[in-house]
Amino acid sequence: MKYVCEVSEIDVGEMKSFDIDGTRVLVLNADGEIKACDGICPHQEVLLEEGIFDGCLLTCHSHLWQWNVQTGEIEQEAEKDLKFFDVKVDDGKVFVIGL
Prior knowledge:
Number of helices: 0
Largest sheet: 6 strands, antiparallel
Order of helices and strands: EEEEEEEEEE
Helix content: under 10%
Oligomer: single chain
Number of strands: 10
Shape: globular
Strand order of the largest sheet: 1-10-9-4-3-2
CATH class: Mainly Beta
Strand content: over 45%
């Protein structure tokens, strides 16, 4: 389990990227629920932090691949799964499990 950030650093509907021991992790605030996924698109290694997040769908800006961050499921154009990490929030701190 790795500490990533404070919950207060990521507003509802926002996302922020972190480098955790050489792994790019994208932390998202989905309607008050903190989620974390691989910060690199599995298609062509584009940074997902440069994409669009509407609070539920994460869209890679390069080829418009989309994932539902609530379910982890592929949406529309995506042809590959995006790796999601388990998250623990404790006393306002965000920890990612499985790194």
